[in-house]
Amino acid sequence: MRFGLLYSLQTRPDKPATQAQIYREMLEQIEAGENLGFDSAWLVEHHFLADGLCPSPLVAAAAMAARTRRMTIGTSMYLLPLHRPVQSAEDVAVLDNISNGRIILGVAAGYRPEEFAGHGEERSGRERRMEEQLDIMIKAWTTESFSYNGQYYKIPETSVTPKPVQKPRPPIWIGASTRAGVRRAAQWADALVASPRHHIAELKQHFAIYGEYLQRFGKHLSCVPVIREVYCAPTTAQAEAEARDGVMYIHGGMYGKWAGVRPLRDDHGKLVKDPATVTFESHRERFIIGSPDHCVREIRRYQSEIGMDYLICWTQFPGVEMDKTLNAMRLFAKEVMPHIKG
């Protein structure tokens, strides 16, 4: 069982903080996290949001790699259709060299229309473009030189250098929940990553479909990573009181606001039609927020029901003070991780 830390690097209007402060605190937290025994640190990508949610995860990842020695550095998720494939291959290869082979590239297709418009990219066809991009990037990393003649990309004979440290290439993970996305993860990637917006009942369905596609492609399950909002305090009441506003700023804003673009269901499986109905109580079952005993029970439930073996903990909630976040990380590392790893 492995544990990671996930960062979106958002500010909150009612809790003023500079973006520079948020990045500085993130780097301090991952240094502390490495000393506490966390295995990895991850970055979200989105664009054009007033709260500054990280628009450039590979740049931030380079800073993470420079501040750590052991931790894996990952993206969850790099919105591949917003980027050019050869440049992405070059950037990730450089990042893999900076980190001496500690990179996992998590990618997703993206969904917000504003992001595609702002980058001058078509939203339609993004899934098929993404598959061509993956094909190009893998060829760039694993062959001396290559050319490409696809529906969306045409590349003359090209040699991408430097090559990644990891051989044959850095691991690729895909975040997806539609049948087509899960198929894409099985075909092109090394793991399917479970989104924090889905209840465990939905995740069971996603991983069942994923298993079917793995068999079809003659591949085997490598790991089962799951992203959850995680916060630990001496009592569940304290954990909820400290984390509630910050976690709902993320969950209610990121998932509730965009429920009309991609579906969101509450804990009872009811489709969310009005963002105002997304509350902590209506989605409580997908958070791992509570006392150490509560967190241990919840993690073991995910292990038992879907085989989770990698928990990516979204712990830096907008507006939650740095000292509280560090206390939650320390308690989780001391009172939760040893029970699970043991």
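[next item in queue]
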Amino acid sequence: MTRTLVFLAALAFAGAAWAQQFKWIDKDGKVRYGDVPPPGVKATPLKPPPAPAAPPRAPATKDASKDVKRGPLTPLEQEQEYRKRQAEAKKAAEKTAQAEKEADAKRENCESAREALRTLESGQRIARTDAKGERYYLEDAQIAQETVKARQSVQEACN
């Protein structure tokens, strides 16, 4: 019973909050405010309380008529929208992870190409191993050819 009375009182006060308000000057020259002005007084209606904000409208497209729905979404539609958002978020996360992975690979390739170029330009003797497993040293002409290839590799990998 008490809950019902509290609810009705709150409902009554809420209705008064949304009522039209007026402003007038009484016989003593004082400015008065209220929802019901006295008879014979020139009352000015005040700005009504703001209406609830309407959701922004989407730009009109030919597919917009399919997306526009009337009324609130059903629980099934809410669940479908939630799963759709989850799938989109998962795809976006996978896409960023893939982009980061590719950027790391490119950075590693660039660094290894630069290291190979530094080694060739260092002036040290460069040794390689042939198919028999024997070690041999590169001649100056071979080092020059390898340096040209390394520069091209750096240019491709780092740009």
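[queue empty]
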